[in-house]
Every structure is written in structure tokens, then in C-alpha cells.
Amino acid sequence: MEGRPLQDPELIELAREGDVRAYGELVERYRDLAFRTAYLITRSAAEAEDAAQDAFVKAYYALDRFRRQEPFRPWLLRIVSNEAKNRVRSARRREGLALRLAEGGPSGDAGPSPESAATARETQEALLAALAALREEDRLVIAYRYLLELSEAETAEVLGVRPGTVKSRLSRALGRLRERVPAGLALAGPETDDA
Amino acid sequence: MPELTPLELERALAGLAGRIEYPSTPALAPAVTARLAAERRGGIRPPLPGLALWTRRRLLVAVAIGLLALLGIAAAARLAIGALEIRVVPTLAPSPTVTPLPEAIGRTVTLGEARAGVGFEVRLPRGLAEPDTVRIFPSPFGDRSLLLAWTDPSLPPLEGTPWTLVLLELPGDEEYAFKLVAGEGAVREVEVGGRRGFWLEEPHHLVLETPTEVQTYRVTGNVLVWDAGGGLALRMETAQPLDEALALAETVN
Q: Which domains does chain A carry?
């Protein structure tokens, strides 16, 4: 039957009634975010896959505890985050965060020159390296806010802290990140200030 | 050249969001739905999430509750804050557990270990020294909960214990801590820092569920439970009256 895609609350209600296919749609909708959240914590694609899969299964069986008026995404990501952290604790293994930049430049109205694109890439790679070297608490709050683009409230929910704490924690983490970024790097952001 | 300003750093980070090359996301939906279907076929878990909770977990709690209060499950009211639920029951039977709570649950850790080991920000009352006892215990859902106890002599003693204050920090949305109180009059709704809370003055029972067991405690002190935000429920046991307990709770962060 043709029609508009079902919204999260509708899919959740169907899943609560035992409709596994409806739950599969929710999984499909959030799989990228769940996997990336787990990956940022476990730093391993295989562990992240297991953590995300287990988290989706746990979330299914916990659906009747989910409050209908609340957004599904942060609730789910909290379960994913717990699952991923438990795996890290069990494995007692620390791998380097192997984030890489995608090939090609950022999309925009005007393409940068090859030279400025190379400089921007250099800056972003230096930022990623500095980010990977931060301690977990700093790394995750920055990654949730800027790499996964979660809101402050969502970040608070996933970290299990208050929104005010996210602000202060993020501020401290950015300060420590700045200290690690080599001086003299060219700015590479979504907007630039024209001189 | 100067280093990046805070604003430039934030812009640069914002520019990274769409540029990261993550490992490709596996096809999770078929794997998850296949697992759910297989568990249903194999009878490992029931088909409905709500039923699963009853059969897999809450039945255990219901048995414990039933033993304590013969007609308890037919409670008139259900009040919940995150992981903590208050059940109003007609009568309380004597509790089978006599060991004071801080000695009976989880394992002792240092405050530093607790901070590193729980997945949330540990909350402490301002103006008190560090707790004398810190114990960590698991919930059935993978969260790590915390029990903190003080012998601070500036607070009135809790009857029958060496402590003057006991604080439970319970993360998560799914209930694994239950308070059984006799009669609705025993529960008073309050606010702590603008968030919902409940005050219990009469003796009641606390049922704590871990992955392996259900423990029941008889509580004689006054108890304040409240929503601390960020998915954390706090439970403070004290011999103080309500106004002093609220003032102390307002400092917990």
C-alpha cells in the first residue's frame, strides 16, 4: 500500500504489539547513527556492529518502558552507548580511533582551488588526530555534538548527564582540543569569513 | 601564524561532520529482525516486548513483592522516576532481610573508581566530606548503580545503622528498584530543583534487582526520591525532616 512513511511513534506502537517488521524499519532508520555511536566508543567496526545489534535487540524488549512522549533517538542511543561501553570494559582493549576523511572535497556553492582544498584537508586531518588523542570523556562529548550532530539535550541523554553539564564539559574539552591542534593551521569550516 | 580561535575551532569541527569516512554500516535490520524472530520461534523470549519483561524479569520481582505483601500486586497506585518505582500496597509483611543496605549490595570501590566505572556523573551533596562507603552494583540492564553512605555526625543517625545518610544513584529508564509502601497517604509528591520527587516518612520496603538476584530491605528512615535529570533517579535516606532533607537534596549535584 502506498502512503507516507510511518513516524517513529507509529512504528514503536506497532513494534510494541509484536510487529517485528515495523521494528526493522526503526532499525533501518537509525542503524547508521547507532553504528557510528558504537564505533566512536569501541573504536572497532566489529565490536560496534555487535554492540549496535545487541542494543537494538535490548531496546526492542524494553519498548514498554519507553515513554511515549519522549523522542526515540536519544533513548536508543543511550542503550547503544551503554552496550558499547560495556564491551570496551570487558575487552579491556584500547585501539586508536581510526577516523578518516572521505575522499573529495566538501560540497558547496563554489569549489575551492586545489591548493585551498589541500590545506583544508590538512587542517581537518590534524583536527581528527588531535581529537583521537583526547581522553574518552572529552572525545565523546565533542564527537556526539560535532561529528554525530546530536543536540545538547540528546548529548546529555546519551552521556547520562544534565544539559548544563554538557555545556561545561564541552567547553573544557574544546579547550583541551585547541591545545592539541598545531598553531598556524588554516581555517576549514562550513563557513569562512571573507576578509 | 596564530592558533585557531574557539569560534574557528567550532567551525572547523562542524565542517568535519559530513567528511568522516566511517566503516560502512552493516545491514543491522535483517540481523536484528532475524534474531527476534528466531527467539520467538525458539520460545526464548515472548513475541511482545511488554510480555517479555514480565516473564523474563519482572515475574521475579512480582514474586518478591507478593511474598512481602500478600495482596500487594493489586496496588492502587504506581509512581515511577526512571529506574525507581514506588508501589502502594495494602499492607507490608515483615521483611526477610535484616542486613543494613550499605553492607549488603554490590562491591566496595573508591570514589574515583566509582566515577570511572559508572556511565554517569556521580552526584554528591555539597558541604559534606566524601562518603565513607561507596559501593557499585549492576542493574539487570547493563547500567551500573551506586550506593554512597556517610557517617557525618552533623546529620542525625539512621536508626539501627552506623550511617547518617545513604544515597542511591540509579541510572536508566527501566525499573529495577522498587519501594513498597503501605497506603497512599505514605507518599507525598515534592519538587527538588524543579524536578519531580516523592517523600516517604513511614517504614517501607526497598526491593533491589540485580542480574542475579532480588534483595529486599526494610527501611526505617525517611526517604526522598527524585528525578536528577539525565536519566538518573536519586534516593536519599535520612533521619532529617522533609524541609531539611529537601535543602540537602538541592545541593546534590
A: 8-91 (1.10.1740.10), 114-180 (1.10.10.10)
